[in-house]
Amino acid sequence: MNTEELELLSDSKYRNYVAAIDKALKNFEYSSEWADLISALGKLNKVLQNNAKYQVVPKKLTIGKRLAQCLHPALPGGVHRKALETYEIIFKIIGPKRLAKDLFLYR
């Protein structure tokens, strides 16, 4: 966690954002089939879009891992498409400078 994220933790709305991200990530743990993954990605996308003003993505390591799992070749194209939509949302939120710094998380 960098200093910007630590400063944001004093904002109650940002803390709610972090809690919403945690809740959205929990949906991945309970996924038993590919349709559940699409639903989990949709919920994550909604949380990210609703909090785009922060230009920071909390739990970015966990999100990066989940997105990579959703691109597994054995999964159908619909899951891949939804994961790519999530990448697009994240990249728009964080901007090019932060993306350059965090690119290793989203490979």
From TrEMBL:
It holds the Pfam family Dopey_N. The keyword Transport applies. GO terms for cellular component: cytosol; endosome; trans-Golgi network. One of its GO terms (biological process) is protein transport. InterPro entries: DOP1, DOP1_N. Keywords: Protein transport, Transport. Residues 11-106 form the DOP1 N-terminal domain. The keyword Transport applies. PANTHER family: DOPEY-RELATED, PROTEIN DOPEY-1. This is DOP1 N-terminal domain-containing protein.
